[in-house]
Amino acid sequence: MPALSTGSGSDTGLYELLAALPGQLQPHVDSQEDLTFLWDMFGEKSLHSLVKIHEKLHYYEKQNPVPILHGAAVLADDLAEELQNKPLNSEIRELLKLLSKPNVKALLSVHDTVAQKNYDPVLPPMPDDIDDEEDSVKIIRLVKNREPLGATIKKDEQTGAIVVARIMRGGAADRSGLIHVGDELREVNGIPVEDKRPEEIIQILAQSQGAITFKIIPSIKEETPSKEGKMFIKALFDYNPNEDKAIPCKEAGLSFKKGDILQIMSQDDATWWQAKHAGDANPRAGLIPSKHFQERRLALRRPEILVQPFKVSSRKSCPVGVGLNELKRKLLISDTQHYGVTVPHTTRAKRSQESDGVEYIFISKHLFETDVQNNKFIEYGEYKNNYYGTSIDSVRSVLAKNKVCLLDVQPHTVKHLRTLEFKPYVIFIKPPSIERLRETRKNAKIISSRDDQGAAKPFTEEDFQDMIKSAQIMENQYGHLFDKIIVNDDLTVAFNELKTTFDKLETEAHWVPVSWLHS
Description:
Blueprint: H1 14-25, H2 32-42, H3 45-63, H4 72-84, H5 90-99, H6 102-115, E1 138-144, E2 151-155, E3 162-167, H7 172-176, E4 184-188, E5 191-192, H8 198-207, E6 210-217, E7 231-234, E8 261-266, E9 272-277, E10 286-289, H9 291-300, H10 324-334, E11 339-340, E12 345-346, E13 361-362, H11 365-373, E14 377-383, E15 386-391, H12 392-400, E16 404-405, H13 414-417, E17 427-430, H14 434-440, E18 445-446, E19 457-458, H15 461-478, E20 484-487, H16 491-507
Parallel strand pairs: 11-16, 12-13, 17-20
Antiparallel strand pairs: 1-6, 2-3, 3-4, 4-5, 4-6, 7-8, 8-9, 9-10, 12-15, 14-15, 18-19
Helix pairs in contact: 1-2, 4-5, 10-16
Domain SH3: 228-298
Domain Guanylate kinase-like: 301-503
Main location: other
């Protein structure tokens, strides 16, 4: 074996020596194939990791601090007894007073307890029944107190193996760094899990406290390091994982209320994000439905009433009689220079007392249908063979005058208006209780459409029932899009609340979708 030049001799670490070996051996290697083998062998990541661990342990062995003595409390008692027999001057009195203080005695007692303990790492004994072929098995011992393990498992559909599905950020498994997504679980505390369902294994883990030993076949996949989440979101709905049938593990779920601020810790799973409450000292994350998954679930829910496409004459398309038009009128006349409304389009003929661009913008049926095809309408409908609709340009026209556009739309339209261009603040005007409706609207009348002549008639009990039912369904279907809900129990009170809300929009900061911050 040829002599090897190691540079600075014993000062060179084993890791540096390992890295230099292939170059030092190159002149003595006969073939390129052997040289390639040497480079591959000494460049193996696992070998480098083992060498690094060896050097860390060697450093720890040399630098490991040891206590000067193990009986500081006894020494202090002996010293105090010795001083009692000496002439008492001011220094001795002060020292005796210090040594007799409870906090000093407690400190010395803690010192002795720590000094007598052995803090070297203790590895669990290797099981005797490991097969020779299982050279990749890992035995892991984690200490779990009352907190969850912080990992979810699933059964691989092809192999039937129990594998780690996800690691919860900040949980016990994540902090250990020993368990990874894709690892195959073989045993828990000596109990084989091959024939068990994931629910049974979760139950075993839930009942286990203290040290838990896992037998694992490591995944061959290399995980990419994840950065701590810096995205914060404002919850648009209440969520209770115990009521969610779709969540893969209810115990791993995170409950929250509408309006809570959540920090997103991981979006690795397109269906289930990991999050924690902003400002929570507990680092452990929990599962929440992703934005895409939640929107998809909402879209699949069938509404109990017709909400799209709307027709002008259909009472059931919106809660008529809730006082929305009156509130909008009062807000508009309170400051006509600051608030504005759109002018709708229609294909019906202009009446003698009407002016084009005032009551309506009158256009041909062909042009209306062309604009519909070109997505120029926010919403539209048909009534008595004529089209009516609100165009996007009519909203832009109000905004161009530097006014706040007061827009009354169907709830399904709100999602399409939530864009960087319009930046809407959505207020849902909700009817009061049915008892209050009967009381406040007993002398009122309802008009099915502005184009019906003499169609006003008193509210019926069926109208009140429809208003309550429609409002409940709208809130259930689209409540996550509402920035504020105002109950119109009293018109004056509701208007004051509405006006205060608009005033605050001018002066206070509000949460908006992150997409609005980028042009």
